[in-house]
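Sat 14:20. Reprocessing the chain from the morning session after the first attempt stalled halfway. Input below, unchanged.
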Amino acid sequence: MDRRELILGALASGLYTSPATANSDKWGKAAGYPSGMRSGLNRAPETRVGNYSGGYENLLPHNKIANGDGVFTLARQPADLSYRWGLFRKTPDEYMRSWPITGLLIARDKQILLESYGFERNESMRFTSWSMAKSVTSLLLGVALDQKLIGSYDDHASKYVPELEGTLHGSVTLRNLSNMSSGADVLHERDNHTIYPRALLGPHASIRETVKSWNARREEQGRTFNYNELSPLTLGMVLRQVSGKSLAQYCEDVLWKPLGAEAAATWMTDPEKNEFNCIGIGAILRDWARLGFLMADSGVANGTQIVSQSWIRECCSWGPQDKHTRFGYAGPNFGYKAHMWHANREGTRPFFNGHHGQRVIVDIPTKTVLVQTAVDHDGSWQPELFALFDAVTRM
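Finished this time. Tokens:
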């Protein structure tokens, strides 16, 4: 931990009033944590707890991902966990009280060390992924490559989706789509206000038409990391075409049931019932953890090689074609590869990353997995979360 993080830790532990406690009813406790979209998809704090833990399923169309009978059991081995944060020793419970965390699960080598919920949430609730769905899309892409439904990671999208012939996104390789380097003139902060109504929320919203019509180019593909929603949406079109199934059904068949998930999941769709696969999966905490262990165990879960070891290596390494997304190149403190974020340059700490604090963090050498669900991302919680995670990996 560097000096800056020590100072942040001292402030967070002693002086900072966290958003979890600054306003006891900011998150809608008095109203029973309601759901609703009167202020848009995520802008009203008082509806986030309810929306993010199953509420969206009553508000927006979705496809179901069924679980099977062969549940992959995660043993329970409760442990007393603590970590250093600034000048103090803290516990996970103290961390959860400091920040607006709805769920926290920590496991190592398929043993659950801690599973805890806040804001009156519980283990049966499905928690929304936000952009962690992009990492699930990556796993499905790996399976499609393993099954030879896709010939090469470096094929263009239009090879598999004829309606994208002649469009910008049809001309981009699957590698550059998954590396967020399509070259399209699209900015995440600026253009989501256009993409979400056109592709998800409007009465005539269509993912297909939105991707096909977005043809403004900023630069050649494969040059710059530029995080956006259109790249994974294009990959979703490819996966539906090559599998002949909805993404939810393909996920159920090749990932969810073989994984040994213990509960059904859902995936948000546009009005045409196509999954809005840049976000929108709802799953229980333990099933998010199972996806983390799939990464930690080189694609093996429930005694089965679900995703090839070669695809997991691909997600965790960088070649000459990926150098612009390496750790320190995609951003000063992270790397990116195939819709997986990376917390170190060695590629041994991949993580799924979602809006407002959703995380699945994996330490491959120690087979440690941490799952967090939350309703806000303001404040210095992220370095504190990694301090907690580091302490568990050193146990």
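Residues 132-146 form the longest helix (15 residues).
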